[in-house]
Structure formats: C-alpha cells, structure tokens
Design a protein that fits this description.
The complex is a heterodimer of chains A (312) and B (169). By secondary structure, chain A is an all-alpha fold. Chain A contains 15 helices and no strands. The radius of gyration of chain B is 23 Å and the shape is elongated. The termini of chain B are far apart. Classes of the chains: A mainly alpha (312), B alpha+beta (169).
Chain lengths: 312, 169
C-alpha cells in the first residue's frame, strides 16, 4: 500500500495553523484574570494610604507639573477629567475618589467574571489613565499589570472561577491564539531585557548583582558580605543574563520548559526578597505562570477529566 | 475559524509585535534603520504601545546599574533649630514609587528638578506647617566594585540637588 507524504510546506502550514488556531482551553486566562485582580487589590492595599500623594492634584508631584513634564501628551489623565468636572462643582480630590471608585468597581467586575472582556477593557483603560496621571511614579509593576489586562480583553476568561455563567463556548480558538501571543510577548520581554543588560560593563564583568544589592534603595537584606564571595556575585549576575536572554529559546521545548520556568520564577522570588520589589516579582510570576505554567500542568487536569476539551 | 478571520488575526498580531519590537529593539539592526526613516510610524507605535502595553521598553537595570539616589529633607523650626524629617511615605511600596521618581527626574534639567523639589517641600510643609525653611537635598552614591569594596573603598555621596525654600513665616 502506498502512503502519500504531504509536501513540506503544506505540513508546515498545518503545524503553524494548529499551533495558533487549534481550539484551546481558556483555563490559563481564567487563572490570569483571578490572580491579576487579586494582585491589583493587594497593590491597592499598599498604595491607598498614599493615594492622594501619588495620584492627587497636590501630591508628591502636582498634576500640572506631571502633565507638563511626564504624561504622554494627547492621552488622557485624571487632570483632564477634573478640568471637565470642576465646572460642575467637583473638587480635584472628589474627581480622584470618583475615578478610584470606578477603577475598583471595574476590577471587582473583572474578578466576578461578568462580561470579563468588557471589564478588562474598562479596567485597562482606567489603569492607563491612572498611571498616565503620575507616570513618573510607575515602574515595572504597572507595565506588566497592564499587559495582563490587555490580553484579557481579547482572550475568553469567564468560563472558570466565575460568578456568572459564561456564554463563550469551550474550547476556543481565541483562547489558544491569545495565549500564543502572550507567550511570544514574554519572549520579547526577556530577550530585550537580556541583550540590553549585555551592553553594560556592569553585567558583562559580573558586578551588576553586587551593585544592585549594595544599592541602599534596593538592598532589602544586608548583602555587603557578597564582596567577600565575588565568585557568587559574578555567577549570579551571569545566571540572570543567561536565564533572560535564552528564555525565548528554552521556554518552548518540553524538555527544558519546566527547568526554565522554575529558574525565572526563582529569579523573580529573589528580586522580591533581596531587592524589596515584591510586587514586581509577584506580577511577573503570575504572568509567567499563566503563559507557560498551565501548558505544563493543565494537561494533567485534562487527562484527569477536569477540563473537557478535544484535541488539546 | 474562517481563513479570512485568521488572516486578520495574524495581521493584527504582526502589527502589534512590530510596534513592540520597534520600541524594544530601537537601538538594534533593522529597527534602528527603519525608525530613522519612518518617524510617523514610530510616533504611531509609541501611542499604541503606551495604550496597549504601557511602554515597550524592557531594558530594566541596563545597560548599567544606576547609582544610589537618596532624598534628604530638613526644616528649620521657629526656634531656629534644623531637624531632619521624612517625606510622608507609609510603606516600602510607596517608597519604591518615590524612588522611581528620583531616578526619573535625573533625566530632566536642573531648573525643572527644582520645581519637583518645591512640590516635595510643599508636602513636608503640609505635615510641618510651623517650618520656616525647608531644604531638599538629593545625593548620589556610586558603589565601588567588588575588589575596591574589599580593599575598604566606600562610596562618597555627591550632592546633585540642593534647594532651600523659604516658607514665608
């Protein structure tokens, strides 16, 4: 009996088509939705005591200064809202509180799983406006929170951990497609981070971890003893470079994915513990887990019958 | 899924990643060349990446580690004594935000930095309305490398901003 082998390009087309467009479970994005919302609430718990100082019209940096020097021009800030609402008798503080109320409500809506894509879009927009108001106070936490919210606009995420029954059928092509986009985005993030570091003499010479941990702004734990163990400082510096730069190579193959994922998780745990960047470390772990953790572990749930899809 | 929808999604993904990579890899290879020739696309990409992914520059702590920046605030009380005070910072997460601000303002001219310092002084005055003068100082310290630190070399702080404000009392 003769077997016909498909031409290579048709075979490649089917592989790529399956990789991006095969229906998949929305479970990773349900996990991302819940964890990201909990993370935003945790962040609010830390920031609300200084909310007026960070985002108010008379804060650490006043609105008119922030607007003039730092905000992205032509994109909205809370000051723009206040300019309108002041005419109706609202004070700047009241506008900030109304805005904050809307933001918190949208996060609650997103967490509940009601119209998750709409809630994600509203939360994402409000998150942007908030941070454009005081962009000088932002760092990586805002960036990656925003990335998570952005992808939740497009991916279905209401089929699990939701108070409201979702109408989006499972499995979903969009769930798989957006997951691949998130994965590619993370590869770009770490590759950019890695090659940018390689340009610096601090990183190539193996001194960067020392400089970072000796920096009083970041040294959560006294690390001056590291100067007596220079090999440890150098190896840890080069480890960061390797883990970040080669993330995009080794996160994909089954044989290396778990190892690389754990290394990146450990990196972010160490960033939290030793540099005091707990929130940054946490949001990175959440996004990595959603992007690559469920692929790794979700299969077991499918095999156990906990997630019922075909062809995953 | 219909093929025309797949084509649309692939096209959207291509544009999405082009704009991200245009910012992330702006110093490298083809993006450096393309950005020089297409400022309009760069501008469009900037707005898109800010709205969609809140800037697309992931070069944190690079190329080198920034020096320490420390803000010191002191005020003169009505009796003439100078005392050191702290900015109202309730926890370490807020402190990280203020530190981001300290790093960020290093990129702006000195006269604009003084305007920011005036904002800080105003916040301190809110907490200490009795103050006659408020001094805002920012120091920079570059840590010595491992070998120098072992030899006993220590960082010397360098003053990068020193502004005195009269509260008109």
């Amino acid at each position: 009996m003769q077997t016909q082998t498909q031409p290579l390009r048709i075979s490649m087309y089917h592989s790529v088509n399956d990789y991006f467009f095969k229906p998949g479970t929305s479970y990773p994005f349900a996990v991302l939705r819940v964890l990201l919302c909990c993370f935003i609430f945790l962040q609010l718990a830390f920031l609300l005591p200084a909310w007026n100082y960070l985002y108010g019209s008379e804060g650490y940096v006043e609105w008119f200064i922030s607007n003039e020097l730092f905000s992205i021009k032509s994109l909205p800030t809370i000051m723009d809202m206040a300019d309108v609402l002041n005419k109706y008798g609202f004070t700047d503080k009241q506008v900030l509180y109304v805005f904050t109320g809307l933001y918190i409500s949208s996060v609650i809506g997103l967490l509940s799983g009601w119209q998750p894509r709409l809630m994600a879009a509203i939360t994402c927009l409000l998150h942007f406006v908030l941070n454009n108001t005081a962009i000088i106070f932002g760092y990586g936490v805002e960036t990656f929170t925003h990335i998570g919210l952005f992808y939740l606009i497009f991916a279905p995420s209401g089929n699990y951990f939701s108070l409201v029954k979702s109408k989006i059928p499972e499995p979903s092509v969009m769930a798989n497609f957006v997951l691949r986009i998130l994965q590619i985005h993370l590869c770009i993030v770490y590759f950019n981070a890695g090659i940018a570091k390689m340009e610096g003499i601090d990183w190539r010479a193996g001194e960067a971890v020392w400089y970072t941990l000796a920096n009083s702004n970041y040294s959560n734990v006294g690390m001056q003893w590291l100067s007596k163990v220079p090999l440890l400082a150098r190896v840890s510096t080069w480890w960061v470079l390797v883990i970040e730069t080669l993330y995009m190579v080794f996160i994909w193959p089954k044989a290396t994915r778990r190892f690389w994922l754990w290394n990146i998780v450990i990196l972010h745990v160490l960033i939290g513990v030793f540099m005091g960047l707990y929130m940054f470390g946490l949001v990175m772990i959440i996004i990595n887990f959603a992007a690559f953790g469920n692929l790794q572990y979700g299969r077991k749930k499918i095999q156990k019958g906990k997630i019922n899809i075909s062809g995953y | 899924m219909r093929n025309n929808l797949k084509i649309l999604l692939v096209a959207a993904a291509f544009i999405h990643f082009y704009f991200i990579c245009q910012k992330s890899f702006r110093e490298y290879g083809m993006f450096r060349v393309l950005n020089a020739h297409m400022p309009g696309v760069v501008q469009a990409g900037e707005y898109y990446t800010q709205l969609a992914v809140m800037q697309a520059d992931y070069s944190f702590f690079s190329p080198n580690i920034a020096p320490d920046f420390i803000m010191l605030v002191s005020l003169q009380k009505p009796d003439g004594h100078w005392v050191a005070v702290a900015m109202p910072i309730p926890n370490t997460e807020v402190d990280k935000r203020l530190h981001s601000c300290l790093l960020g303002i290093q990129r702006i001219p000195g006269d604009l930095q003084q305007i920011i310092a005036k904002s800080w002084a105003a916040r301190v005055l809110d907490e200490h309305p009795e103050a006659k003068f408020i001094r805002v100082m920012v120091q920079r310290k570059k840590q010595p490398d491992l070998a120098d630190y072992r030899k006993g070399v220590r960082a010397n702080p360098e003053i990068v901003l020193d502004v005195l404000f009269n509260t008109h009392h």
